[in-house]
Specification:
eight-stranded mixed beta sheet, single chain, alpha+beta, 2 helices
Length: 129
């Protein structure tokens, strides 16, 4: 498998203005077993493994989302690549510029791209415990 391309979809990350109400919807309506979490100095958020995907609802302000009062794509797809440097070189070759340099987040390092429709796409290293 190429080190500069995505291996899998690893996280569905919903950014929310009201994480508790959003989590309650997914818990009560869809039965997703979200649990509250609080660590790394961030606000309470909700998360759980959901099949092969990690499902999480995060406060928008914790992840440097744009002005949360503006309309914004609050769904982020998160793809895993084995080598973030190889992936960034691949992006450079395609003239695709990340929105920020690689950033650590919990047990991974990530960059964020914009797709042609303006959706944020997060690309991250494998989750390490």
């Amino acid at each position: 498998m190429r080190a500069d391309l995505a291996q899998s979809l690893s996280v569905i990350l919903l950014l929310a203005r009201d994480t508790k109400a959003t989590a309650e919807f997914y818990i009560n309506v869809l039965g997703i077993p979200l649990e509250p979490e609080e660590h790394d100095g961030r606000h309470v958020h909700y998360a759980c493994p959901f099949g092969a995907i990690y499902f999480t609802i995060q406060p928008a302000e914790d992840l440097q989302a744009p002005n949360v009062e503006q309309k914004y794509d609050f769904l982020q797809l998160c793809f895993t690549v084995p080598d973030i440097d190889a992936f960034l070189k691949h992006c450079e070759d395609l003239n695709v510029k990340p929105l920020h340099p690689p950033m650590p987040f919990e047990h991974t390092t990530f960059v964020t791209l914009l797709d042609p429709e303006g959706r944020h796409v997060r690309v991250m290293t494998p989750w390490e415990e």
